[in-house]
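Researcher: Let's do a round of design. I'm pasting the structure tokens now; please hold your answer until I've finished.
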């Protein structure tokens, strides 16, 4: 999702944003009404579309369906808002694909319950005062980490109801992200279950949302609110080249590499954009000294490096392995910047 879980409430620069569902009874949508689209129509996207369609025919997920549009986008990161989007990471793994689908759907469910989620997060902070922030253990913010304890608890319950406890255990134990969150839910399941039930956030509860103020949907909050910093300092002119691959070793073919230079006002201005070749190689040419925002990934499906270092020499050749970004990071629906 674009803004860390609650999913629906984001705390950045003192701003709390509540995501409320549109005023229609989406819970009544059946699985057969879920529209699955592909972003680029690639073979892998088409294959996952087919696999998800088959899963939604096989399992009755109507209880867990809160939005009926799903986009499959290769190399995107999974997110719930504004449109539920899944990458192809779990292509060929039905149980893991189903679990990811449920995880994002449950963000839509939790987005309806502002007060209950705020109360739950406060209690969880007291229960776990030193929760980790950042992948792979936690989510991208403190608030998101605590909110995901609720979402991931509900995801586990939904998985068990649909595929049974043994297969659910395998799915959850193989998750490469949110490792502390899932481990904590499994270890303290009774405590978290009691909290979820007390706040009427369990799937059998339907608390009223009447009388609660409506504020901006997360996708209505300008992407310009994101705070970005330089991650590539060039002290003197250098010829900058490099090579991009993902964690499997596959090159990023025909992918844009963007370099933006920080001006005197602290704004990042487009400086140079070049494509990679079929082997993942790129050549930015001679780069002037200064502070830059270096964006090697094609989208937010991959982590933007916090720092890119080059030795002080005329030629700088970067070997970069881009790490996947997992579900529901802040500003997930915005262009990289």
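Researcher: That's everything. Go ahead.
Model: Designed sequence:
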């Amino acid at each position: 999702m674009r803004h860390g879980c609650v999913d629906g409430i984001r705390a950045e620069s003192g701003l709390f944003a509540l995501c409320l569902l549109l005023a229609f009874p989406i819970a009544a949508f059946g699985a057969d009404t879920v529209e699955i689209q592909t972003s680029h129509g690639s073979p892998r996207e088409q294959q996952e579309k087919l696999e998800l369609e088959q899963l939604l025919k096989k399992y009755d997920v109507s209880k867990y369906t809160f939005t009926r549009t799903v986009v499959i986008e290769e190399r995107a990161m999974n997110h719930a808002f504004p449109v539920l989007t899944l990458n192809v990471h779990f292509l060929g793994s039905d149980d893991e694909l189903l679990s990811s689908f449920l995880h994002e759907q449950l963000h839509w469910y939790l987005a309806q319950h502002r007060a209950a989620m705020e109360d739950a997060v406060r209690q969880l902070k007291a229960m776990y005062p030193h929760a980790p922030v950042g992948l792979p253990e936690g989510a991208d913010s403190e608030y998101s980490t605590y909110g995901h304890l609720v979402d991931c608890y509900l995801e586990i319950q939904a998985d068990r109801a649909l595929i049974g406890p043994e297969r659910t255990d395998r799915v959850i134990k193989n998750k490469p992200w949110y490792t502390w969150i899932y481990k904590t839910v499994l270890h303290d399941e009774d405590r978290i279950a009691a909290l979820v039930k007390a706040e009427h956030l369990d799937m059998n509860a339907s608390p009223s949302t009447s009388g609660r103020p409506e504020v901006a949907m997360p996708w209505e909050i300008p992407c310009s609110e994101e705070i970005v910093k330089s991650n590539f300092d060039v002290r003197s002119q250098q010829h900058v080249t490099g090579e991009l691959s993902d964690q499997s070793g596959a090159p990023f073919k025909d992918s844009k590499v963007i370099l933006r230079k920080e001006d005197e006002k602290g704004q990042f201005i487009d400086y140079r954009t070049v494509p990679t070749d079929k082997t993942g190689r790129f050549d930015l040419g001679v780069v002037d000294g200064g502070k830059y925002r270096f964006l090697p990934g094609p989208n937010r499906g991959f982590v933007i490096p916090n720092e890119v270092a080059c030795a002080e020499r005329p030629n700088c050749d970067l070997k970069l392995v881009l790490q996947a970004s997992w579900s529901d990071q802040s500003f997930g629906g915005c262009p990289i910047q």
